[in-house]
Amino acid sequence: STLPQQSMPKFIHIANGSFTMGADLSPRYINAGPSLKWRSIFIQDEFPARRVHITQDFEISKYEITNRQFEQFQPEHNRWRGRFNDISTKDDEAVVYVNWYDAVAYTNWLTTKDDNHEYRLPTEAEWEYVARGGSRTPFGDWQSGDIYSLDPFTPDQVKRMNYTIYEEGTLKYPFTYSNGCRSWVTFLPDDCAKVEDAYPEENMAHDADLSVGHHGPNEFGVFDMHGGAEEWTLDWYGPYAVTDTANPVGCKTGSFKVVRGGSHNNHVQQARCANRSGAAPEDKHFLLGFRIVRVPKGQKLPDTSVEQPTRPWAETTLD
Questions:
Q1: CB of 246 within 8 A of CB of 54?
Q2: Whole-structure pTM over 0.85, yes or no?
Q3: Do the strands 58-61 and 293-296 form a parallel or antiparallel pair, or are they unpaired?
């Protein structure tokens, strides 16, 4: 059987190629001093940056998978729409409240309906390759400079995505540039300029519009690679391996899957191309969604030989 046209994701062809994957910020941001206004960013897991080769063409969904598309596969997901703060209620908003297993099951279901292609989640490397679109700047837009002044979203996009709060005529952003700018954190910098205290209480989040297509297209013609929903990838979260440079697929095992792209209620720095986050594959919440990859039938990824390192605390035994 085939899907109704409006329920089938649209795909963008991505040619094979090479790119530098990983940190595009100086290590000095790890322990920021006065010149960086004391605002550190966790980028330790983005090193070492290395040249990565994607040797096979692939297609990636032009947009994040929507409620309408996912619910063709899992109609009962409808009860999760708007479950928290009315986030993601409409057919064409990015689906959230989908765990990693749900996302993989959706791709497997699509594969059964297509004689010519296979569907899967993108690898972490494929995801960053697409997000960068050939660039090495933090947001894939060739804009460099002070990371705290950079913003991947134009004022018009911010308004359309409902990432704004009008308060006494002032345009404010629900994205925060530093934990230190949140009211419940003891230390508050003096210069939280352009920073909205998006969560007056810890568990409050802003009702963003997750309608797909607001942000982009990027250089490859792909939308919403920054913000929107955090996106599941295939890979287990772990340190980068210096020698893992050809079609990397991450570690053999792990506890968390890599999620990419930041989301509608994250710090703007988490929307950077290089930013890595991890989530337990069982996690299902209002920040997490996904996009998918399509390849010709029979095109496979390599097996990984990368082992998770044993952490020092795991090597310690008690007598």
A1: no
A2: yes
A3: antiparallel
Sequence-distant (6+) residues with CB within 8 A of 4 are: 72
CA separation for the pair 108, 182 (Å, rounded): 41
Give the DSSP per-residue string, 25-39.
S-GGGTT--GGGTT-
Residues contacting 310, CB < 8 A, separation 6+: none
Q: Compute the half-sphere exposure of residue 305: CA atoms within 13 Å on the CB side of its CA.
A: 5
Q: Is 153:262 a contact under the CB 8 Å cutoff?
A: no
Give the chain's radius of gyration (CA, Å).
20
Output phi, psi for 246, to 5 deg. Answer: -110, 110
Element (H, E) at 129: helix 124-132
Residue 287 in tokens: 């920040």
Q: What is the mean pLDDT of each run of 10 residues along the chain (319 residues)?
A: 76 98 92 74 93 98 98 97 92 97 98 96 98 96 86 83 57 40 44 43 70 95 95 97 94 96 83 94 94 97 88 60
Closest listed residue to residue 9, CA positions, set 57, 58, 60: 60
Q: Alpha-carbon distance 195 to 107, whole Å?
A: 38
